[in-house]
């Protein structure tokens, strides 16, 4: 199976949906956070546990690398290498534009629904979180425009299909994604166009 790459704006529910899909298909789930920990361990950090990012060591690691274009690109290079091996579910902001293959899914959601989701997750008010989301959206767009020239969140041309998440439970979103993937797999493959000046003879193509 080709790599399944899930993308969407912050707090749209990518990770939760990706976990469900990976579990149902028996595939490994990889995200940018996994790659960051991999790099941290290589550099001698004790990057263990989901809450490592909130530790003094985790915050120091991220602060030292903040604003480094090469650091961001290294994360993307490693994710791309995983995607090329297939049989994996990946969450990434940039990979749909960078990878040639794979099933690329955009999860859409309004700022309102994303703020409500993040507020529930972080035990904050939707009003406070809305400001955070607004800032993250702005920074992400500027960052990826600068790194790769892509219009993150505006250009959806790399994606095979879009699935809405507003008011839809993660399990239902995952079900819709899996259904769309099945349709893609069943769709007839485009035939290879004939080269000018050639004809098919006995199962082989010969020049005229």
Topology of helices and strands:
Elements: E1 4-8, H1 14-25, E2 28-31, H2 32-42, H3 56-65, H4 69-84, E3 88-91, H5 95-98, E4 103-108, H6 111-122, H7 126-148, E5 161-164, H8 170-186, E6 198-201, E7 204-207
Parallel strand pairs: 1-3, 1-4, 2-3, 4-5
Antiparallel strand pairs: 6-7
Helix pairs in contact: 1-8, 2-4, 6-7
Please tell me about this protein's structure.
With 208 residues, this protein is an alpha/beta fold. The chain has a single domain (4-178), classed as P-loop containing nucleotide triphosphate hydrolases (Rossmann fold, 3-Layer(aba) Sandwich), CATH 3.40.50.300. It contains 8 helices and 7 strands. Strands 2-3-1-4-5 form a 5-stranded parallel beta sheet, sandwiched between helices. The chain has a two-stranded antiparallel sheet with strand order 6-7. The radius of gyration is 20 Å and the shape is globular. The model is unreliable at 196-208 (pLDDT under 50).
Query: So what's the CATH class?
Result: Alpha Beta
Uncertain ranges = 196-208
Biggest sheet strand order reads: 2-3-1-4-5
Q: Strand pairing plus helix content: what structural class?
A: alpha/beta
Total helix count? 8
**Any idea how many domains?**
1
Write down the Rg. Answer: 20 Å
User: What name goes with the CATH superfamily?
Assistant: P-loop containing nucleotide triphosphate hydrolases
List keywords for this structure.
alpha/beta; Rossmann fold; 5-stranded parallel beta sheet; two-stranded antiparallel sheet; globular
